[in-house]
Please model this.
Amino acid sequence: LFIFHKALQFYSKLKDRKDIKLSKRFKAGVNLSLYTLMRLEIEDIIHLLKTYDVSARDVIIEVKESYINDKNAYLKIHNLYELGFVVVLDNYSNSSSSLSYLVDLKVDILKLSDSLLKEVNESEEYTHMRSVYKFFVDISEKFDLSVVSSGVESKRDLDLIKELGVNIATGHYFSRAVVEEDFVEYLKDNLKRKKR
Model:
């Protein structure tokens, strides 16, 4: 629960700052380990939302695809979705994925594994792996899921995923992980650039 508390606290502070203007699409994000997910109590989450005056729709919860094999974790994910959280099924790939998850599990976003993008780039069967990637993008759209491509490391990666129909991406091409203070400075610098 500590990580949830810290994320909501930081998000709430950012919203209240006068020197930063956040996009309406800006959300808090929390990656949950299986251990943390299993220990979460819905009442505690609701209390934290009220404490920091944050809507569940303003919080993205990322859970790894492997967690959904656990029935209790599956139910917790479903409950979080029903509360209004934006749920991301993280690390989706062709090695362990089941399309049946997409039918039953309530999620908003499918985050494709960085290893899948790497396979597309490095495979001798480039055309085949590219088709597999495109299949995941297309099937996600059929289920009305947004798609995020993780592991974008270069302009080449970015061009490839755009060509395959993905318009949301994460990876070191955009930024390495940063601490709170550096993130605030990034937001301030971004605001200054927009004013020019």
Residues 126-142 form the longest helix (17 residues). The chain has a mean pLDDT of 89.
